């Protein structure tokens, strides 16, 4: 492990935000270093871990690995920004500290970028659940039929409470010069949804986003991940970030229509969490009051509410302090950090 970047400009800078990732960080780094037919550097930004994460990174004897030890916890967005600021590669790839790349992933993505003159490339994902069962997130045939992802399609796929998976789960590779020239970085105020906002901003800036339909990224579902629990303050932060996005990028047509639906879905999520918090506090009156403040959410969430009311009346609901929410069918545009 070296604290100095290599002198040769690598094809890809792989940035990893790590927080208490001692159990998985070496696996993630090994997969990054094992990329075939591309040159890489791996920059790990340790976000004030209290475990052995830093020591595990420092133990890796490879000059392509660089550690940035943050002196203040900045969250996933801030840690990634710190790593990107130190990057020298032509492309930027984000890898979560508990996930892995398949060996040919980056080569395939860079080849796709050359073929399409794209500044952004995304690919499919293999998802490994808590029982270690794997599945591919998107149908390859469906992705293969798409030439690219445009802004309207991306926003539309990130509307909460949709039945299908959304493109917000994809892990883009960005051309570094494009990010720098547009002044794009992760929003450090967001602990959930920072990935979505960066890609949406890149598309709004005119970036072309090509697709590799095969799975090159392996996404591990982990118990306790911040992406699996959505609180009211997370929704408030996403609404504020989306408002700022609209101020920077006045949308029109299909993109604006999609954004209006996304905003409505965030308000529905806010109402849903308020309802669940009230139900878990065993307050039917509080739940009804929360529901009536957003009739649209009440209509949309009628069945989940009634199921919880029935459980409450039967005395089977246990009191907890916060609500869990995974809107969007079985998954939501939320991300690990």
Automatic annotation (TrEMBL):
<keyword id="KW-0808">Transferase</keyword>
<feature type="region of interest" description="Disordered">
    <location>
        <begin position="316"/>
        <end position="337"/>
    </location>
</feature>
<dbReference type="InterPro" id="IPR029044">
    <property type="entry name" value="Nucleotide-diphossugar_trans"/>
</dbReference>
<dbReference type="Pfam" id="PF00535">
    <property type="entry name" value="Glycos_transf_2"/>
</dbReference>
<feature type="domain" description="Glycosyltransferase 2-like">
    <location>
        <begin position="13"/>
        <end position="176"/>
    </location>
</feature>
<dbReference type="GO" id="GO:0016740">
    <property type="term" value="F:transferase activity"/>
</dbReference>
<dbReference type="InterPro" id="IPR050834">
    <property type="entry name" value="Glycosyltransf_2"/>
</dbReference>
<dbReference type="InterPro" id="IPR001173">
    <property type="entry name" value="Glyco_trans_2-like"/>
</dbReference>
<protein>
    <submittedName>
        <fullName>Glycosyl transferase</fullName>
    </submittedName>
</protein>
């Amino acid at each position: 492990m070296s604290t100095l970047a290599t002198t040769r400009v690598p094809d890809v800078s792989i940035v990893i935000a790590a927080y208490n990732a001692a159990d998985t960080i070496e696996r993630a780094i090994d997969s990054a270093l094992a990329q075939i037919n591309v040159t890489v550097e791996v920059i790990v930004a340790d976000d004030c871990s209290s475990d052995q994460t830093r020591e595990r990174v420092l133990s890796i004897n490879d000059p392509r690995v660089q550690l940035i030890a943050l002196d203040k916890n900045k969250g996933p967005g801030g840690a990634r920004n710190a790593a990107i600021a130190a990057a020298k590669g032509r492309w930027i790839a984000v890898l979560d500290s508990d996930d892995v790349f398949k060996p040919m992933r980056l080569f395939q993505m860079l080849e796709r970028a050359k073929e399409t003159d794209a500044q952004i490339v995304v690919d499919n994902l293999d998802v490994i659940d808590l029982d270690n069962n794997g599945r591919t997130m998107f149908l390859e045939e469906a992705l293969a039929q798409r030439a690219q992802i445009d802004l309207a399609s991306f926003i539309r796929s990130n509307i909460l409470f949709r039945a299908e998976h959304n493109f917000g789960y994809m892990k883009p590779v960005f051309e570094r010069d494009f990010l720098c020239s547009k002044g794009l970085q992760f929003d450090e105020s967001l602990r959930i949804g920072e990935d979505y906002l960066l890609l949406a901003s890149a598309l709004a800036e005119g970036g072309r986003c090509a697709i590799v339909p095969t799975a090159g990224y392996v996404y591990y579902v982990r118990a306790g991940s911040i992406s699996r629990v959505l609180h009211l303050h997370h929704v408030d932060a996403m609404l504020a970030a989306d408002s700022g996005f609209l101020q920077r990028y006045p949308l029109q047509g299909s993109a604006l229509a999609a954004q209006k639906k996304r905003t409505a879905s965030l308000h529905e999520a806010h109402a849903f969490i308020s309802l669940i918090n009230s139900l878990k506090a065993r307050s039917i009156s509080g739940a009804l009051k929360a529901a009536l403040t957003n009739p649209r959410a009440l209509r949309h969430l009628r069945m989940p509410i009634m199921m919880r009311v029935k459980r409450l009346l039967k005395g089977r609901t246990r009191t907890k302090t916060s609500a869990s929410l995974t809107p969007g069918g079985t998954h939501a545009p939320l991300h690990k950090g």
